[in-house]
User: Fold this.
Amino acid sequence: MKHGGGTGKVAHWASLAGPNHGTSTAWACAAWSQACRDMTPGSYVQDGLAEGDETPGDVEYATWWSECDEVINPRDSVLLDGATNNPAGCLAHNDLLGDEGVSQGVRDFVAS
Assistant:
């Protein structure tokens, strides 16, 4: 959205437990994985995404996060300024993908 010109093509952007500000868990694989290095807090990727407006353009943004997420650390890394940030209760990281409440929330958001 921020660097690829997507703001003119996307109406709704949803993030399920995304490491939007990085996750310290990524340090576990950073030695051999560029993707993990990109997800570490303070990486050039994370800093570039957090720079300026976190929710650019005329796009509706929403995030879903869990207070029991074992992958995203700190948990508030998911939250974006300017987005609707939705708590999903106590779900494991991958459980957000199959949770009916989260799924309904995403469907309602996209339909809005």
Notes: The helical segments are 34-39, 44-50, 100-111. The chain has one domain: 6-111. The first helix runs from residue 34 to 39. The mean pLDDT is 94.
